[in-house]
Please model this.
Amino acid sequence: MKTSELGTVAGETVDMKLEVVVVPVSDVDRAKHFYEKLGWRLDADIAAGDSFRVVQFTPPGSQCSIFIGKGLTPAGFASRSVSHCFRYSRPRAPSLSAAVSR
Model:
């Protein structure tokens, strides 16, 4: 899977980057241990009560991370419903200071 593709938004070409994939798991600690053993970087482990926990990992050399946890999505373990987060970047317009200095 590519992590960057070109697409169009409102007729403009934009760069789309896959930033995060949410992966439902049945056992957060077991999944965390699995990704740690793979050598993935642990970016965050945040809990809020007993019903919410998010753990973020990034594979070595990747610009895309995964979220595993509890209460992240209504999809259950092994669900075919996986969430993705894309970042869209439009070409930058010249800044006002650049336009004035010309």
Confidence is low (pLDDT under 50) at residues 93-102. The CA atoms of residues 52 and 93 lie 40 Å apart. The domain at 4-100 is CATH 3.10.180 (2,3-Dihydroxybiphenyl 1,2-Dioxygenase; domain 1).
